[in-house]
């Protein structure tokens, strides 16, 4: 049986001689049409230019329906679902992921709620190593300055409290080349190895969140190997469906990516890849359940009674993306090309610049906002973002860039992170362009906005 294609009786489900529900395969057209794409995302608010796929992703209607059917299967007969269907379904999803990321073995792939959970799994075992004396106090963990906030908090909770020394790689922004990133990374590793200490873990983003830049992970992992770093964890929350993901080429010990951001899954679901090694047996889900000690993949597949449906629709999502020319690779390339084009259009209209060269952008691009908007703090970015949402129907995150010389006059201090996904149209970006141009023409300044 192929449960990810099951539908309710009124939508074509039949029964076998034992009155069990039997699914019928949905006939899928070779390529999806523009009207079908619009239908798949018709649940989006039509009054909002949603150019922020990067934050929460987007789930098409057909996958929402498949998600609902999995939930109904559980609610219809929970015991049968748990004992006979859940583990099998999750294994099928893990197998799809294994092939997508070119892993060696399905046992290297666990499914978890999100990249934040994956980070907790990896950092928990690092914290134990410090606490149990396998790592020495003052040994280092290196992470990027632009690491995601929740990952920084996990490092603080698991590593710093256990005696680890945390080093942040100071990255430039705007950035012009991979060489700038590599040079700063090498400096951080040298600092971590000073005074005879060791670098026990390097945490490397594949795509930083804010500001958004593709990081040269293959090169940085290779440097880590050359410099004797014990383990490498790649936080790739935005990667799957956004950039090429190949475990054999990247060579990290641990790699995580959300599937609900750029791979059309419902929230929330992610994978954690753990390269087969001695460390694998010391990894445990932070929620301890009956499956503790049976391997991370099995532990993660049952953390108590909850809704697992988002983890079970991965095969259906693969069917969905394969309706597009070139599959997920084709979607990824088109998203990149369009978002760069739109970013350059906005920068030209506003007289600003992109935050990085096009080859360092994924399906997200940082675009400088006019200096006259007076963005002088992170608080201003939230106020402006709210104003754009409520007054113009534009949803886009904004990043505050502290001026290097301390002089804000005439400097670009705010960058918008625009996304492109298959549901976006050029009108979304024109709406954003015109909103900013109107604010500039009205001599708007962030000081005019009340605190949120």
TrEMBL record:
Domain Aminotransferase class V, chain residue ranges per copy: 85-277
Keyword list, A-Z: Pyridoxal phosphate
PANTHER family according to UniProt: HERCYNYLCYSTEINE SULFOXIDE LYASE, L-CYSTEINE DESULFHYDRASE
Protein species of origin: Tetracentron sinense
Entry protein name: Aminotransferase class V domain-containing protein
Regions of compositional bias (Basic and acidic residues) in chain numbering: 1-12
Highest taxon in the source lineage: Eukaryota
One Pfam family in the UniProt entry: Aminotran_5
Keyword Glycosyltransferase listed: no
Region (Disordered): 1-20
InterPro entries from the UniProt entry: Aminotrans_V_dom, PyrdxlP-dep_Trfase, PyrdxlP-dep_Trfase_major
């Amino acid at each position: 049986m192929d449960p990810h294609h099951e539908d309710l009786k009124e939508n074509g489900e039949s029964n076998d001689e034992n009155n069990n529900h039997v699914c019928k395969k949905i006939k899928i057209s070779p390529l999806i049409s523009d009207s079908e794409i619009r239908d798949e995302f018709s649940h989006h608010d039509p009054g909002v230019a949603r150019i922020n796929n990067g934050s929460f992703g987007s789930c098409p209607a057909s996958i929402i329906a498949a998600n609902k059917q999995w939930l109904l299967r559980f609610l219809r007969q929970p015991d049968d679902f748990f004992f006979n269907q859940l583990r099998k379904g999750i294994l099928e999803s893990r197998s799809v992921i294994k092939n997508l990321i070119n892993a060696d073995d399905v046992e290297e792939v666990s499914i978890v709620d999100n990249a934040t959970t994956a980070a907790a799994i990896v950092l928990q075992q690092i914290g134990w190593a410090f606490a149990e004396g396998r790592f020495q106090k003052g040994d280092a963990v290196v992470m990027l300055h632009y690491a995601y906030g929740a990952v920084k908090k996990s490092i603080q909770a698991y590593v710093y409290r256990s005696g680890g020394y945390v080093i942040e790689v100071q990255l430039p922004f705007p950035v012009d080349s991979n060489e700038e990133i590599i040079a700063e990374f090498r400096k951080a590793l040298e600092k971590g190895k000073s005074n005879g200490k060791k670098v026990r873990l390097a945490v490397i983003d594949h795509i930083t969140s804010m500001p958004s830049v593709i990081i040269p992970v293959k090169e940085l992992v290779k440097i880590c190997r050359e410099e004797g770093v014990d383990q490498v964890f790649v936080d790739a929350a935005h990667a799957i469906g956004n950039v090429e993901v190949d475990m054999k080429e990247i060579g990290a010990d641990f790699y995580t990516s959300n599937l609900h951001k750029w791979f059309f899954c419902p929230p929330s679901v992610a994978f954690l890849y753990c390269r087969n090694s001695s460390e694998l047996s010391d990894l445990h889900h932070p929620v301890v359940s009956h499956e503790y000690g049976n391997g991370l993949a099995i532990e993660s597949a049952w953390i108590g009674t909850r809704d697992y449906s988002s983890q079970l629709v991965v095969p259906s999502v693969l069917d969905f993306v394969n309706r597009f020319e070139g599959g997920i690779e084709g979607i990824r390339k088109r998203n990149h090309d369009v978002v760069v084009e739109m970013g350059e259009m906005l920068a030209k209209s506003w007289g600003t610049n992109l935050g990085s060269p096009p080859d360092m952008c994924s399906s997200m691009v940082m675009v400088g906002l006019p200096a006259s908007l007076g963005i002088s703090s992170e608080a201003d970015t939230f106020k402006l973002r709210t104003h754009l949402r409520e007054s113009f129907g534009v949803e886009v995150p904004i990043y505050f860039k502290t001026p290097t010389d301390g002089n804000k006059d005439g400097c670009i201090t705010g960058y918008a992170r625009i996304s492109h996904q298959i549901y976006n149209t050029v009108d979304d970006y024109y709406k954003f362009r015109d909103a900013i141009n109107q604010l500039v023409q009205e001599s708007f300044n962030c000081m005019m906005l009340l605190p949120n």
